[in-house]
Amino acid sequence: MGVPIKGVETHYVETHVGKMQVRRGGSGPVVVYLHSATGEGEAMLLLDELSASCEVVAPMFPGFGESEGIDEMEDMEDAVFHLLDVFDRLELTREGQGPPTVAGLSLGAWMAVELATRYPERVGRLVLVNPVGLFIEGAGVRDIFGRTPAEMAEDMFADQSHPMAQMMHMLSEFRSDPTRMAEIPFEMIRPLAQTMAATAKLGWDPYLHNPKLRKRLHRVTAPTLVVRGAQDTLVPPAHAEAYAAEIPNARLVEVDGAAHLLPLEKPSELAQLIADFVNG
Fold it and tell me: What is the spatial distance between Cα 75 and Cα 205, in angstroms, rounded to a whole number?
């Protein structure tokens, strides 16, 4: 990968629904990173690693970070049209390069596929990391709305000593003792409540899928890389396998030692996979 360029900086762009927070940096082929329901992005090593060989663009969806406009989003169709507006305003198609690579994690991967099935000409290459978006009988995605942070950490991280996993376990300990909950500053828990509310707008009912998406996967024209964390227990393997089997020109890679939040656990490995895919 070479030496990362520490040039990923936060910018603000006006969209049709309000201000959008976007992280951008590096040079080379454009890679758009769409985050998961976790809203990851700040100080994310993956973005720095990718910026060594690509121009990285990581917008925050409305309701996440400082991006506005969640009240204007009712479903995934609204999300796709918002992405089209974002792509236009950020001028992501370079002369001689074609449309950008779109990479997404979980919820972000679902958005990326919806875009690629409806407007295939806007996606040059597609990278789906632990994607949701499909309904597969007998292989449902585990609940993300009603479980404790500690329970979620078990699905999110293969290594429970990861700092974010430890924070989730600590938060559960505080939640079990109402007297200790008062010790937690609201600013610490506000982002979690905010991201769950924003995710519910898109994935509450039906739960984290579009019933029509699977029969549209043949419409994806972009070469596609599906990446699965081998220890992901949130999304069953059948989901990544279905995407890889039913999207033309798709292949599946598993990364050992990573669960659902693979970009946080294995940033260098994922950056290398994406860079090789984009430049290969």
Answer: 10
**Domain span at residue 47?**
9-143+192-279
CB 273 within 8 A of CB 225: yes
35-87, pLDDT tens digit by residue? 999 999 877 899 999 999 999 999 999 999 999 999 999 999 999 999 999 99
* Neighbouring C-beta atoms of residue 129, cutoff 10 Å: 32
Residue 116 lies in a domain: yes
What angle in degrees, to the nearest 10, is found between the helix axes of 163-175 and 149-156?
160
Give the pLDDT confidence of 227-272 residue by residue, as tens digits: 999 999 999 999 999 999 999 999 999 999 999 999 999 999 999 9
Domain-embedded: residue 165: no
Query: For the chain, how far is it from start to end, CA to CA, in angstroms?
Result: 14
Question: Structure pTM?
Answer: 0.92
Length of the chain in terms of residues written: 280
Q: What's the CATH number where 273 sits?
A: 3.40.50.1820
Residue 222 lies in a domain: yes
Q: Is residue 43 part of a domain?
A: yes
What is the domain count for the chain? 1
Closest CA to 124 of 222, 31, 34: 222
